[in-house]
Amino acid sequence: MGPIARFLSVILSTSFTHVYAAFSSSGSTVFVNDIAYFVPPDVVGTLPSKIQDFTSRFHGSLGPVPITVITISKPGFQVSDLSALAANFSASDDVFQDGFLEALYVQYTGHGNPSAPQICSQNAAKAVIASSTQKPIPSGPYFVTSAGTLHRAYRLYSDFAGAFTETAISNSEGVFSVLPAGIVGQSPAVAVPSRLYFTKTVDKPLAGVRLGIKDIYDIAGLKTSNGNRAWYGLYPPANKTAVAVQKLIDAGAIVVGKMKTSQFANGETATADWVDYHEPFNPRGDGYQDTSSSSSGPGAGEGSYPWLDITLGSDTGGSIRGPSEVQGLYGNRPSHGLVELTGVMPLAPELDTSGLLTRDPVLWTAAAKALYGDNITVTSKYPSQILTVEFPESADDIADGLILDFLANLTDFLQANVTAFNFTTAWAAANPSAADINVILNTTYPLLISKEQIKLVRDPFYADYAAAHNGRRPFIDPTPLIRWSYGDNSSATIEEAVANKTQFMDWFNSEVLAPDAATCSSSLLLYVGSDASTVYRNVYWDSPGVPFGFSSGRISVFSEAPDFVVPIGQAPYNSTVTQHVEYLPVTVDMMVAKGCDGMLFSLIEALLAAGIIQVAKTGYSGIDGGEVLLKRSLEFEQ
Ligand SMILES: *[C@@H]1O[C@H](CO)[C@@H](O)[C@H](O)[C@H]1NC(C)=O
Ligand SMILES: *[C@@H]1O[C@H](CO)[C@@H](O)[C@H](O)[C@H]1NC(C)=O
Ligand SMILES: *[C@@H]1O[C@H](CO)[C@@H](O)[C@H](O)[C@H]1NC(C)=O
Ligand SMILES: *[C@@H]1O[C@H](CO)[C@@H](O)[C@H](O)[C@H]1NC(C)=O
Ligand SMILES: *[C@@H]1O[C@H](CO)[C@@H](O)[C@H](O)[C@H]1NC(C)=O
Ligand SMILES: *[C@@H]1O[C@H](CO)[C@@H](O)[C@H](O)[C@H]1NC(C)=O
Ligand SMILES: *[C@@H]1O[C@H](CO)[C@@H](O)[C@H](O)[C@H]1NC(C)=O
Ligand SMILES: *[C@@H]1O[C@H](CO)[C@@H](O)[C@H](O)[C@H]1NC(C)=O
Ligand SMILES: *[C@@H]1O[C@H](CO)[C@@H](O)[C@H](O)[C@H]1NC(C)=O
Ligand SMILES: *[C@@H]1O[C@H](CO)[C@@H](O)[C@H](O)[C@H]1NC(C)=O
Where is this region: Disordered (predicted)? Predict the structure, then answer.
């Protein structure tokens, strides 16, 4: 049975004993001053019986109706305090609004039994209730029913960027179900609880942090799609939550839904490849640039929604970094092996990693500590040697200028030396008897992802689907299909690919980014993440191909070293869509030695504190914010 079973009541009619009905409440959607809220069925508290009839005093409705709950420990609460409190609530929480001052429930935890007038003078709220209580619920906005039951308030937002596959809510026992609520307009609703219910503590460093999950992670109670509709239809809801997701939940994060992935986490572009699901919308610039993939939903959601704090993606060949780069976000591909992948769909276990996309480096570090658990040590002694890969040599355009300014600022900050690093020549010099690096690593990535995913995902899926559908084969998007065909037809083995990868990794991790006793990593390696180049989503690209080749983005894939995207600015372009100048993000990827993730998080926080980088904004621009262009014409939606 699903989570709803807890609310299931069986009503037996005495006069028609053969007739019965199963009734369950999945909550309700209400409006307070034109803002939509979801009221879940879970009861978080009950008003004392002597005041349960109070609802008739202000609405005569069956409810649920809005109410503000506060706790005081001393008598003498005044109306002026109430408005100050409401201002505080509004400043720190997007769910609270003055409409919740319709009614006030004051939980008094002090000595004695204060009378109502001592607590509040006249008419701040239509109903004022005083009560002493043993177990106060957190202050904030709630809904109360005519039965006196108190329910949390969830604000409903529109997923106008199409970033989610399914939005979700968990009940008081932590069991997830699909959000049974909608919103005006064409997009699904996302429900977020008031931030006021949560207080960050040492045990719950992510208390109340709103989290979106790429839909290749299992969440108990929800189906996983892996970006494939047949998969979604075939398998039941997961019965266990992926370890990485559970770690974030255990630290207090609130999962608000599952987010879009390109199919089976393979790289897809918008126009041709996203057949089963539509690619989310990149909020930056004209709003019609590709989101990159495969963590497309997590990237688009982080770039679009101020109410979404952080998202969990995965990176095998660039699936966190790509969406972070083109949407101007912080995103980390961790050192391979440091974040557990149980409960996550594999692409190639030798290469798969689980990491975060966010706008705020401080939250990023806090969430990473929860995600990596014992596998991260945050250290604050930094390398003084910087290697740059394929960096611009001069500031020929605005993007190149920003990249060089950032390098200069970082060099100053670290008192470091900078060396341009060329993989082709460095590899050849260090490994004279080996083949060219671009030959050794040319087919390693496509070989591993195809052969592994065929074995771990495709073949069991095909067999299950055929068994359930009289021998039929499920629909697969063109991109995974062509990659799997490559795996089917290649005579090279997984062992050969792993041997090539290992040869590169052993060299890189000892000669290029080596461990260092003082600074964790001998050097810092930088390459250009994004330079405001356009990738229009309405362009018909060539048919998808096999991802051959070695490039900067593959360094971390083969070496297992961490690779973090850092947004540093934005540059203009003339949009073919708007016929107007728009702006796109400029980002740099920062790498350190394998296992030094904690040092890199610390360095990026230090760069933020020094004013060299900034917290990214949502909307049109990651630097200046502003409404997403599409959103400006969707004012009727919240
Ligand atoms: C409002 O917040 C400020 C700063 O957090 C705090 O000092 C003040 O006491 C709060 N006021 C009320 C009425 O809670
Ligand atoms: C949980 O799901 C897995 C995979 O579908 C299945 O093998 C297992 O039997 C299920 N366990 C329970 C307790 O339902
Ligand atoms: C830490 O790394 C080890 C070795 O790779 C892994 O088994 C373990 O699951 C990781 N811990 C977490 C919290 O992911
Ligand atoms: C940087 O380069 C200078 C000049 O080549 C050298 O003296 C210095 O030791 C170098 N510093 C570091 C940290 O490598
Ligand atoms: C690296 O060296 C190779 C071989 O000399 C050269 O072809 C290539 O252009 C160099 N790359 C860069 C970015 O300078
Ligand atoms: C990589 O492999 C593809 C497919 O076999 C081939 O077309 C291409 O020339 C190769 N590139 C290198 C550098 O070996
Ligand atoms: C491994 O490297 C050799 C060159 O040493 C190359 O010919 C081969 O194609 C590579 N295979 C894979 C799967 O990476
Ligand atoms: C490659 O494998 C696919 C099966 O995935 C098969 O249909 C196709 O004919 C093969 N192509 C070649 C060129 O061998
Ligand atoms: C946009 O186009 C105008 C007119 O061709 C040109 O002068 C300007 O440099 C272009 N701006 C950018 C950012 O490319
Ligand atoms: C970064 O570099 C630019 C250009 O040199 C400079 O204007 C700016 O002040 C620097 N920022 C910081 C925080 O040092």
Answer: 281-301
Residue 419 CB–ligand 4 contact under 6 Å: no
Residue 317 near residue 262, CB atoms below 8 Å: no
Q: Strands (DSSP E) along 373-427, which ranges? A: 385-389, 417-420
Cβ(411) to ligand 4 under 6 A? Answer: no
CATH topology for the 157-377+622-634 domain:
Amidase signature (AS) enzymes (3.90.1300)
Dihedral sign computed on CA atoms, order 486, 490, 495, 499: negative
Mean pLDDT on 310-338 = 98
- For residue 486, give the ligand 8 atom closest to its CA: 1
Residue 20's DSSP bridge partners are: 12
Q: How confident is the model at residue 19 (pLDDT cuts 50, 70, 90)?
A: low
pLDDT in tens, 149-165: 999 999 999 999 999 99
Beta bridge partners of 65: 144
Ligand 6 atom 10, closest CA: 442
Q: Is the pTM of this model over 0.70?
A: yes
Query: Which amino acid would we find at residue 319?
Result: S
81 in contact with ligand 1, CB cutoff 6 A = yes
H/E segment holding residue 141: strand 140-144
CA of 45 to the centre of ligand 1 (A): 25
CB of 384 within 6 A of ligand 4: the answer is yes
Could you give the CA distance from residue 331 to residue 320 in angstroms, rounded to a whole number? 6
CA angle 527, 529, 530 (to 5 degrees): 135
Q: Which of 246, 226, 334, 318 is nearest to 529 (CA)?
A: 318
- Domain parsing of the chain, residue ranges: 29-152, 157-377+622-634, 385-596
Within 8 A by CB and 6+ apart from 59, the residues are 65, 102
Cα distances (angstroms) measured from residue 139 to each of 89, 136, 325? 9, 8, 39
Beta-sheet pairing, 385-389 with 524-531: parallel
Taking Cα atoms as reference points, which of 272, 294, 262 lies closest to residue 543?
A: 272
Distance in Å from the first CA to the final CA of the chain: 34
